[in-house]
């Protein structure tokens, strides 16, 4: 796992697993297209200060495990990954324009799952430690 990020106002370690696929799940991510796609995604991450912890480009989808800043929005990051890579791949590989005549290379949507070094149980146990014995609020949001 990556180190914690810090600046003058925050300390964080935000990681996510992202998955998105080619439109119609066409298996077009092969050969030079696959290599160029990987290079483009690496360049985008470097430009956006996103660290790739692990990634896989399959023939019809992409998996990325990333570490990102708290000021970044996952939705915006995925939009940049998909938009910039789609435009460049279609410019550089004319055969893709024939298959994707509407200029949409990636399918609509994506999957995103948060990851990290602690579990839900660990967080709940930590928060339960702060609950007072007489706290009978009947809620999961207690007052210390």
Describe, in short, the structure shown:
The protein is of the alpha+beta class and 144 residues long. Helices cover 37% and strands 22% of the residues.
* Total count of strands: 6
Oligomer: single chain
Helical residue percent?
25-40%
* Number of helices, where a helix is a run of at least 4 consecutive DSSP H or I residues: 4
Major beta sheet, specifics?
4 strands, antiparallel
| Lateral strand order in the biggest sheet | 4-5-3-6
Summed over residues and divided by their number, the pLDDT gives a mean of 88
Question: How far do the termini sit from each other?
Answer: 33 Å
**General form:** elongated
Provide the fold topology.
Elements (H helix, E strand, L loop, with lengths): L4 E2 L4 E2 L1 E8 L9 H18 L2 E7 L3 E8 L5 H19 L1 H6 L11 E5 L4 H10 L15
Antiparallel strand pairs: 1-2, 3-5, 3-6, 4-5
Pfam families: Y1_Tnp
Organism: Autumnicola tepida
Protein name: IS200/IS605 family transposase
